[in-house]
Design a protein that fits this description.
8 helices; single chain; elongated; 175 residues; mainly alpha
Length: 175
């Protein structure tokens, strides 16, 4: 059996079909076909919708075809096939990637992160920039647009709060 896909209007084409009627008559059937092909219901609906969007852009011309559904079916199947190719390519790429295991943070880092989280934002930023990013007080002041004396105050208060935090935790473990 030969299926003829019309590529243009037929001299014997009937009256123009309303797009809404066409959509309602063919969407579900095509989405079911693509679902069976792809195995993903949402993807099948998305690709069917995309095919109908492309038909709508050209509806004046396509509605005059002998079988406009053949055009939308071809577009939908092409989209599905392209989607499968992209997925296969991505799977092959991922299969070639070497899995790297990154160890979790050390207990000291977790403790420091928790302690820093207890500080007010300005003190935390000053402590991190000074002790972890190794910026000078002048560099921090320039970055946060604050006087150097204010940055020194934030650092002092931050150090005091961190010392208190760790002292209390140490004493809590001894008890």
């Amino acid at each position: 059996m030969t299926v003829r896909q019309s590529t243009g209007p037929s001299p014997t084409a009937g009256p123009a079909v309303d797009f809404t009627d066409f959509y309602q008559a063919h969407f579900h059937r095509l989405a079911v076909q693509l679902y069976a092909y792809l195995g993903d219901h949402a993807e099948a609906q998305d690709l069917t919708q995309e095919a109908f969007c492309r038909v709508l852009e050209r509806w004046d011309r396509i509605s005059a075809y002998d079988d406009p559904s053949a055009w939308v079916r071809r577009v939908a199947w092409n989209l599905a096939t392209s989607r499968l190719r992209r997925v296969r390519t991505a799977v092959r790429h991922l299969a070639r990637q070497r899995e790297e295991h990154t160890p979790g943070p050390e207990p000291d880092r977790v403790a420091l992160s928790r302690a820093l989280a207890t500080l007010p934002t300005n003190q935390r930023r000053a402590v991190v920039l000074h002790y972890l990013a190794h910026l000078s007080v002048a560099e921090i002041a320039a970055q946060v647009d604050a006087p150097e004396g204010t940055v020194r105050s934030w650092l002092s208060r931050g150090r005091t709060a961190l010392a208190t935090y760790f002292t209390e935790r140490r004493e809590g473990h001894r008890a």
